[in-house]
Design brief:
Blueprint (H helix, E strand, L loop, with lengths): L5 E3 L5 E5 L2 E5 L3 E7 L5 E7 L22 E2 L3 E6 L2 E6 L4 E6 L4 E4 L6 E4 L2 E7 L5 E4 L13 E4 L16 E2 L2 E6 L2 E7 L5 E4 L7 E6 L4 E7 L3 H12 L13 E2 L7 H13 L6 E4 L20 H10 L3 E6 L3 E2 L5 H9 L13 E3 L2 E4 L6 H9 L1 H7 L3 E4 L16 E2 L6 E2 H23 L7 E3 L2 E2 L7 E3 L7 H16 L5 E2 L1 E2 L8 H11 L6 E2 L15 H16 L1 H14 L4 E3 L1 H4 L14 E3 L3 E3 L8 E6 L3 E4 L5 E3 L2 E6 L7 E4 L3 E5 L11 E7 L5 E7 L13 E8 L4 E4 L12 E7 L7 E3 L2 E3 L2 E4 L24 E8 L5 E5 L1
Parallel strand pairs: 15-31, 21-22, 21-35, 22-23, 23-27, 27-30, 30-32, 32-33, 34-35, 45-49
Antiparallel strand pairs: 1-11, 2-3, 3-4, 4-5, 5-20, 6-7, 7-8, 8-9, 9-10, 11-12, 12-19, 13-16, 14-18, 16-17, 17-20, 18-19, 24-26, 25-26, 28-29, 36-37, 37-38, 38-43, 39-42, 40-41, 40-43, 44-45, 46-47, 47-48, 48-54, 49-53, 50-51, 50-54, 52-53
Helix pairs in contact: 2-3, 5-7, 9-10
Bound molecules: ligand MIG.
Ligand MIG binds next to loops.
C-alpha cells in the first residue's frame, strides 16, 4: 500500500528525562509526559521539527511533580498517585489504568496519536458501555456517546436542540469507562472536533485543525474530584456580587428611559422581587459602544439614580465591534493606540455588524485589553453596575470572519484560526480587569455569550438565542448542567425563550426552572411579545411571584453554594450523573434533565400542559419540597405537575437554609430559617455570608458556620461563627421536617418551645392560593414544627426529644 497522508506516532527511539518531564523521541515525533501535583497527567505530542508550546489562555495553575519511569522491553510505566500510565514502545501508545489494573482509557492501538498535515487527532479505543459527559455548552443529550461536536464559537441565533457548534467552546469532557470516571481537557484553541463514537464503533477521538496535541488526563474515583482538579488548572468562578443572584429582567430592548423606569416600578408595585434591569443595544447612539443615545436616554445618571432608589442595578450590553467613524472617540483612540486586528498587509480588518463597518479589538493583545477595559470606568461613574459582552464569537454579518486576520496571541503572533475560540474569553478578561482596575474593591459582574475554558474566571455564561419551545425548556436545564460539569458554575438561559412567542404555560414552567439556575434572567427578542412576569395574566404572574419569592428566600443557600463553587469549582446545578453515573436511569432521556440545585435540592424540569411527569429519584428517601410527602428513591414514578408546580425534592437528612422574603438584595433579611429533614445519615451545611460585594472576604471578613445534623443522636449543631463579618441575621427559626411525636427541644437542659406553622414553601405571604383551582390531595403536612433561636455568634447545640 502506498503511504497515506496520515502519520501515526511511530516506534520509540530514545528519551530524555528532566526533573518534571520526560520526552520520548520517535523518528518523526516527540511525546512529552508531565505529572501535575493534583494527580493529573499532561500529555503533549508534536512533530519532531516543532517545539513545545507552553502558553495557554485557559491554564492558570499547574505544578509538576518529579517523574519516575520504569522501563521494560516493551513499554514504559509511570505511576502517579492513583493512576498508572503504560506507554507501549512500538508503536508508542498510551493506556491509563487504575491502581488495580483496570483500564480507564487507552489509545486506539492502530491509530493512536496521528497527523494529517497540520491536523492532529488522538484516537481512543471506544469501550462497551463507555459514557461521555460535558464538553461545556453543547446541545444534545446528557450522554454524548454516539455524537460528534465541533468547537468553533458561533453566533447560533435560534439554534436547534442538536445544533453544533453554538457560542462557547470548552474542550473538556468526562468519560466513564468500567465505572471509572476520567476527564480529558484538550488544551487547543483552534477548531477542534470530538467524536464520541459517532458513525463508527471503533474509536472516540479529539482532533485539532492546528497546533499541538496537548491534553490533560484526570482520574479520580468521583466526578466532583475531577471537576476540582480541572478547575484548579483553569480557575474557578469567584463569588459574584449578591445582586447578580437576584432576578434579572431583560428585553431587546427597553427604551426610552421612561420605559425602563416603568418596568422597574412595575416590579415594586406588584411585589415581585428583582434586582437588575438590562439595557440592550438601543441605549447606544447608532450602536456605538461606550455611548448613549441622547434622545432615548437624555440623562443616564438621573435615570440610574432613580433606578437605584428603586433598588435596581443596571447592566449594559457591550459588543466588541468598534464603528469605523472618524470623530467617534473610541474609534479615534483605537486607531491612535493601534489596537485592532489586522490583515497580513497591516491594514485593519473591517467587518459589518450592528453599527455598520467595524474594526475588532485584538483582545489577545494585553495592550488592547487594557485599552478597551478603560472605557468601562465612565459607565461605572454614571452608576452602571455590570456589563454584558454579546457578539463576542465574534459575530458579524455573514459570520465568516476571515481566517487570515492576524492576532497577537500574547506575543506569539498567530491568526484567527487559533484566536477565534479565545476571542470572547479575552474580551471578558478585558471587561473584568477594566472593571477591577476602575473599582478595585468591587466585584465586577460580567455576562458573556462566547467563551473558552477558563471563562469561569471572568464571567457568567448565558446560552444565547434559544427558542420559546418545549424542547428548549428541557435543553436549558441540560446546557446549564453541562456547563457546570465543565467548570462554569454560573450559567443560565433566557427564561421564556429568546426567539418566538412563549405561551403562558411554557412561561410558568420556565420561570420555575429559572429560579433554580445560578443565573436567572428573563429575556426576549425584539418585536416578540412582552415576557415580564406580569405579561402572561394573573395566574402566571402569581406563579412567577411564587418562584421568584422562593429564589429570594433561598439566597443564603444559593450564596453558600457559590462559596463552595469558588473553593472547589463544583457547580451550583449538578447533573445527577455527577453522583449517580452507575444508574442507567440518569441517562434515560426522560430523566436526563434532572439536577441537584446546591447540595440537597433535586429539581425535575417539567413540560407545560402535563398533569404529571415521570421522575427518577436516586437511592434514599426524598421529601416533596411543597408538602413534605416522602418518596422512596431508587425508583421512577409519576408525579403531579399542575401549572404552578414542578417536582422539587429534598434529600433525606438535607439541610436547607432560607431567609425572610425581601424585594431586592439591598434589603436586609434579618430572619433566617434552617430546615432540617429527618433521615438516616449525618449531614452538614456550610453557611457562608459576607458583604456580598467586596473582596474583604480575603481578609477573613466573612461569617461562616457549619450546621450539622446527626440523626442518630438527634442533635443539631451550629458551630461558632468564623470570620469578622457580623451576620446579617438576628433571629432564626429551625424547622423540623419528617419528625413525629416531638416532645421538645433542649439546649444545655434549657427547653425550647415547639411552634407550628402552616406549611407552604412557595407562597409564604400571598393571599392567592394556587390550590384554589385544583385540590391537592397529596398534601399531608398541614403544620410544621419549629423553634426560635437568637442568631448568636457562639456555638449552639440542640437535642430533639
Ligand atoms: O444580533 O443585542 O444573543 O440576547 O438581545 C443580535 C441584541 C444581537 C444577540 C443576543 C441577544 C441580544 C441581541 N444580540
Amino acid at each position: 500500500m502506498g503511504m497515506s497522508h496520515y502519520n501515526s506516532i511511530s516506534g520509540y527511539l530514545n528519551h530524555e528525562i528532566n526533573a518534571t518531564s520526560i520526552i520520548f523521541f520517535t523518528d518523526k515525533q516527540k511525546l512529552r509526559i508531565q505529572l501535575l501535583t493534583t494527580g493529573a497527567f499532561r500529555i503533549t505530542a508534536i512533530k519532531k521539527e516543532d517545539s513545545f508550546f507552553d502558553f495557554s489562555y485557559a491554564v492558570i495553575h499547574q505544578k509538576f511533580d518529579v517523574i519516575n519511569v520504569n522501563e521494560s522491553k516493551e513499554s514504559f510505566r509511570i505511576k502517579h498517585q492513583n493512576t498508572v500510565l503504560i506507554i507501549d514502545k512500538n508503536p508508542m501508545r498510551l493506556s491509563f489504568f487504575n491502581e488495580n489494573g483496570i483500564l480507564i482509557n487507552a489509545d486506539e492501538k492502530a491509530f493512536g496519536i496521528a497527523w494529517d498535515g497540520e491536523e492532529v487527532t488522538n484516537y481512543k479505543q471506544l469501550n462497551d458501555g463507555e459514557i461521555f459527559l460535558g464538553l461545556g455548552e453543547k446541545a444534545g443529550n446528557l450522554n454524548r456517546r454516539g455524537s460528534y461536536y465541533t468547537n468553533w464559537n458561533t453566533d447560533a441565533f435560534g439554534y436547534g436542540v442538536d445544533s453544533d457548534p453554538i457560542y462557547a467552546s470548552i474542550p473538556f469532557f468526562i468519560g466513564i469507562n468500567n465505572q471509572l470516571p476520567y476527564g480529558i481537557f484538550f488544551n487547543n484553541s483552534s477548531k477542534t472536533n470530538f467524536n464520541f463514537g459517532c458513525s463508527n464503533n471503533r474509536f472516540s477521538f479529539f482532533q485539532a485543525e492546528k497546533g499541538q496535541l496537548d491534553y490533560y488526563f484526570f482520574h479520580k474515583t468521583s466526578i466532583p474530584e475531577i471537576i476540582e482538579d480541572y478547575t484548579e488548572l483553569t480557575g474557578r468562578t469567584e463569588l459574584p456580587p449578591m445582586w447578580s443572584l437576584g432576578y434579572q429582567q431583560c428585553r431587546y430592548s427597553y427604551y426610552p428611559d421612561k420605559e425602563v423606569l416603568s418596568v422597574a416600578q412595575n416590579f415594586r408595585d406588584r411585589n415581585i422581587p428583582a434586582d437588575v434591569i438590562y439595557l440592550d443595544i438601543h441605549y447606544m447612539q447608532n450602536y456605538k459602544v461606550f455611548t448613549w443615545n441622547n434622545e432615548r436616554f437624555p440623562n443616564p445618571e438621573l435615570m440610574l439614580k432613580k433606578l437605584k432608589s428603586l433598588g435596581f442595578k443596571v447592566v449594559l450590553i457591550v459588543d466588541p465591534g468598534v464603528k469605523v467613524e472618524a470623530g467617534y472617540e473610541v474609534y479615534d483612540d483605537g486607531i491612535k493606540h493601534d489596537v485592532f486586528a489586522k490583515y497580513p498587509d497591516g491594514t485593519n480588518f473591517s467587518g459589518e455588524v450592528w453599527p455598520g463597518w467595524c474594526h475588532f479589538p485584538d483582545f489577545t493583545k494585553p495592550k488592547t485589553r487594557d485599552w478597551f477595559g478603560k472605557f468601562y470606568e465612565k459607565h461605572l461613574d454614571e452608576g452602571v453596575s455590570g456589563f454584558w459582552n454579546d457578539m463576542n464569537e465574534p459575530a458579524l454579518w455573514g459570520q465568516k470572519f476571515p481566517n487570515l486576520v492576524e492576532f497577537d496571541y500574547e506575543g506569539y503572533a498567530t491568526n484567527f484560526k487559533l484566536a477565534r475560540n479565545v476571542y470572547g474569553l479575552n474580551m471578558c478578561r478585558s471587561t473584568y480587569e477594566g472593571n477591577k482596575k476602575a473599582r478595585p474593591k468591587n466585584r465586577p459582574f460580567v455576562l458573556t455569550r462566547s467563551g473558552f475554558s477558563g471563562i469561569q474566571r471572568y464571567a457568567a455564561v448565558w446560552t444565547g438565542d434559544n427558542t420559546a419551545s418545549e424542547e428548549h425548556l428541557l435543553l436549558a436545564a441540560r446546557l446549564v448542567n453541562s456547563l457546570g460539569i465543565s467548570g462554569v458554575a454560573n450559567a443560565g438561559t433566557d427564561v421564556g425563550g429568546f426567539v418566538g412567542e412563549c405561551s403562558i404555560e411554557l412561561y410558568a414552567r420556565w420561570i420555575a426552572l429559572g429560579a433554580f439556575t445560578p443565573f436567572f434572567r428573563g429575556h426576549t427578542m425584539i418585536n416578540s411579545r412582552d415576557t415580564e412576569p406580569w405579561a402572561f395574566g394573573e395566574e402566571a404572574e402569581e406563579i412567577s411571584r411564587n418562584y421568584i419569592n422562593l429564589r429570594y428566600r433561598l439566597l443564603p443557600y444559593l450564596y453558600s453554594a457559590f462559596y463552595e463553587a469558588s473553593k472547589t469549582g463544583l457547580p451550583i446545578n449538578k447533573t445527577l450523573a455527577m453522583y449517580h453515573f452507575q444508574q442507567e436511569e440518569v441517562f434515560d432521556t426522560r430523566f436526563q434533565n434532572q439536577f441537584y440545585f446546591g447540595k440537597s435540592i433535586l429539581v425535575c424540569p417539567a413540560l407545560p400542559n402535563k398533569e404529571a411527569i415521570k421522575v427518577y429519584l436516586p437511592e434514599g428517601k426524598w421529601y416533596d419540597l411543597f408538602n413534605d410527602n416522602i418518596f422512596d428513591g431508587n425508583s421512577t414514578f409519576y408525579h403531579e405537575t399542575p401549572i404552578d408546580k414542578i417536582p422539587i425534592f429534598v434529600k433525606e437528612s438535607g439541610i436547607i437554609v432560607m431567609q425572610k422574603l425581601i424585594q431586592n438584595t439591598e434589603e436586609k433579611a434579618e430572619k433566617l430559617e434552617i430546615h432540617i429533614y429527618n433521615g438516616t445519615s449525618n449531614n452538614s451545611f456550610e453557611l457562608y455570608e459576607d458583604d456580598g460585594k467586596s473582596y474583604e472576604y480575603e481578609n477573613k471578613h466573612f461569617n461562616k458556620r457549619n450546621i450539622s445534623w446527626n440523626p442518630i443522636l438527634k442533635t443539631i449543631e451550629i458551630s461558632e461563627a468564623e470570620g469578622s463579618f457580623e451576620s446579617s441575621y438576628k433571629s432564626c427559626k429551625v424547622y423540623l421536617h419528617g419528625f413525629e411525636n416531638l416532645s421538645h427541644i433542649e439546649n444545655k437542659n434549657v427547653q425550647f418551645k415547639l411552634n407550628y406553622r402552616d406549611y407552604n414553601f412557595v407562597d409564604p405571604i400571598s393571599n392567592f392560593d394556587p390550590f384554589e383551582k385544583r385540590e391537592d390531595k397529596s398534601k399531608t403536612v398541614e403544620k410544621l414544627p419549629y423553634f426560635d433561636i437568637n442568631w448568636e455568634k457562639n456555638k449552639m447545640k440542640f437535642s430533639i426529644i
